[in-house]
Amino acid sequence: MRQLEQTGRPPEGFKINSLGALQEFVKGVSPDAAVTLGNGSKKKSILITAQTQRRVEEAVAAASSGVPLEYSVRGKLRGRLAVLNSWDQDDRSFRLQILLAPGKPVICGYKDNRLVTELGYGFEGIVEVEGLLHYRREGIWPYKAEIDRIYVLTREQTVSLKDLVGLLRLPEGQDSVSYIRRVRDAE
């Protein structure tokens, strides 16, 4: 905080989302309020002034201007092939559900007609796509992709329940049903 107040630039490694949160915090503090910051063992009192608020705003503006609103990188992405729109010649696309963010599907477009066969094999399964991934500044996951290649990952269950028998030791005095309920209910 002191470095940011003195230089108008955040310390190295400070993320733009953290700067935004700091800006909200500083704006919420009444002028000339004394705020105590520390890790519990040493406390340093920092006075939040109009200068502090101005410096934080400068840092946010500088950091925001360095990252474009949208940017693209070549890469790979894995997910579930959810919605397929391969029949429209003008708009060949599909939606890929990212496993860690299923509520934010990536719209994947492609031009190569040969990919239709791979899409058919991979429908409702897990695939890996490769191509140009488009991101928004505030997003972690791409929102759009231009696909060059599609790899269909295995659709079959590779591990059967027989293979799992004996791998898990249950706590003393507990059967499998009650154990699974406790894990499910986070007890």
Task: Describe this protein with a few key phrases.
187 residues; alpha+beta; OB fold (Dihydrolipoamide Acetyltransferase, E2P); 5-stranded mixed β-barrel; two-stranded antiparallel sheet; 30% helix; 34% strand
CATH topology of the largest domain: the name is OB fold (Dihydrolipoamide Acetyltransferase, E2P)
Largest sheet: 5 strands, mixed, barrel
CATH homology group of the largest domain: Nucleic acid-binding proteins
Low-confidence stretches: none
Which oligomeric state applies? Answer: single chain
Percent of sequence in beta strands: 25-35%
Question: In order across it, which strands form the biggest sheet?
Answer: 3-4-5-7-6
Main CATH class of the largest domain: Mainly Beta
Folded structure, characterized:
- This protein has 187 residues and is of the alpha+beta class.
- It folds into two domains: 65 residues, no CATH class; 83 residues, OB fold (Dihydrolipoamide Acetyltransferase, E2P).
- It has six helices and seven strands, in the order H-H-E-E-H-E-E-E-H-E-E-H-H.
- The strands form two sheets. A five-stranded mixed beta barrel has the order 3-4-5-7-6. A two-stranded antiparallel ribbon has the order 1-2.
- A hairpin with a 4-residue loop joins strand 1 and strand 2.
- It is flat and about 65 Å long.
- The model has no long low-confidence stretch (mean pLDDT 76).
Brief account:
This protein has helices spanning 2-7, 16-28, 50-66, 115-122, 161-164, 176-184; strands spanning 33-38, 43-48, 70-85, 93-98, 101-109, 126-136, 144-152.
SSE blueprint:
Layout: H1 2-7, H2 16-28, E1 33-38, E2 43-48, H3 50-66, E3 70-85, E4 93-98, E5 101-109, H4 115-122, E6 126-136, E7 144-152, H5 161-164, H6 176-184
Parallel strand pairs: 5-7
Antiparallel strand pairs: 1-2, 3-4, 3-6, 4-5, 6-7
Helix pairs in contact: 2-3
